[in-house]
Amino acid sequence: MITRSELSVQSRAQISTQTISDFGCWQTQLAGAITSPEQLLAMLQLSPGLLSPALKACQEFPLRVPHAYIQRMVPGNPDDPLLRQVLPVGEECQHIEGYGLDPLAEQSQNPTDGVIHKYHGRLLLIVGGACAVNCRFCFRRHFPYQDNRLDRDSWHNAIEYIRSDTSIKEVILSGGDPLANNDRRLANIAAELNAIDHVATLRIHTRLPVVIPDRVTDELINWFARQRLQPVMVIHANHANEIDDRVREAMFRLKQAGVTLLNQAVLLKGVNDSASALIQLGEALFKAGVLPYYLHLLDPVHGAAHFDVPDVTATRLIQEVMAHCPGYLVPRLVREIPGRPGKTWIL
Q: Which domains does the chain have, with CATH numbers?
């Protein structure tokens, strides 16, 4: 008798053979991401009844998901935890009190184009608005990327801003996803930061090595890990099913090059809102050489209220994880509150 788990593995293998027989280079995979809800539903053998609300939600925030990520979903399961992160749903169109377009008030902490400076000693460089995958809970789904393009003049202003503030020890490349840029551009950015003596650490916040593991190339490792700046990469995985062999291989390559690897996740209803899911995620990350870092409570962005998990539930879940895991596998439960000098620790 074939078990449900064996059937799931067979289904994933089948979709892999049918639609992802050749991944191609990471740029090809990025360009070939699925943007049609109808195509996604057909690939995963899901009910056509999901199409109408998905199309409506896409008018506010488009669908985008690469084949390599779809491969890890179970066909026929509308509650697949990876699918739930990317499939547009009707609830996104509801206007819920307290959920807005700029939930972290980042536009008020934007001293020059492409720079977000919220915390002492570190800042974000928005190096582009593109992502490999459009996560439906994204707190920057309404961010004005068109006003924060790092063209030649704004890049000069950003570098001068960093150079003039000697308290800045760490620069974080963010977006969008910074690794959606090509390695030549990123290497040039890193070289200019490397020349600023008071900057010691270069951190990248990225989801790309999770959704398209082939993004971890020799070129990426060369410019990121082989320089003066201490390299830190914070990936974003919310469920253990996201960490497959390809992701593990990519993480091992980075780790062998001396990159500090951390993960930040978001607590999401219907995705990872159980102690077992969080424990499995921590174990899967550790097996890949990545330490859990933060577990974020949902940022109140318009379109994502259906993912919210109450604070009392979140606290109980982390307490259960603490009771079953060593401390290094327990992420810090946090919320980001505008105006605070850092993340607010819940537990």
A: 4-93 (no CATH), 106-345 (3.20.20.70)
The side-by-side arrangement of strands in the sheet containing 291-296 is 115-119, 122-126, 170-174, 201-206, 230-235, 260-266, 291-296, 332-335, 344-345
**Over the chain, what is the mean pLDDT?**
92
Query: Per-residue pLDDT tens for 118-173?
Result: 999 999 999 988 999 999 999 988 887 777 667 788 899 999 999 999 999 999 99
- Helix, strand, or coil (residue 318): helix
> What's the pLDDT tens digit per position in 190-200?
999 999 999 99
Which distant-in-sequence residues (6+ apart) come within 8 Å of 47 by Cβ?
A: 41, 78
- Angle 286-291-294 from CA coordinates, rounded to 5°: 130
CA distance 131 to 107: 20
Residue 267 near residue 295 (C-beta atoms within 8 A):
yes
Q: Are 113 and 143 in contact (CB under 8 A)?
A: no
HSE-CB of 171 using CA atoms within 13 angstroms: 29
Helix, coil or strand: residue 110: coil
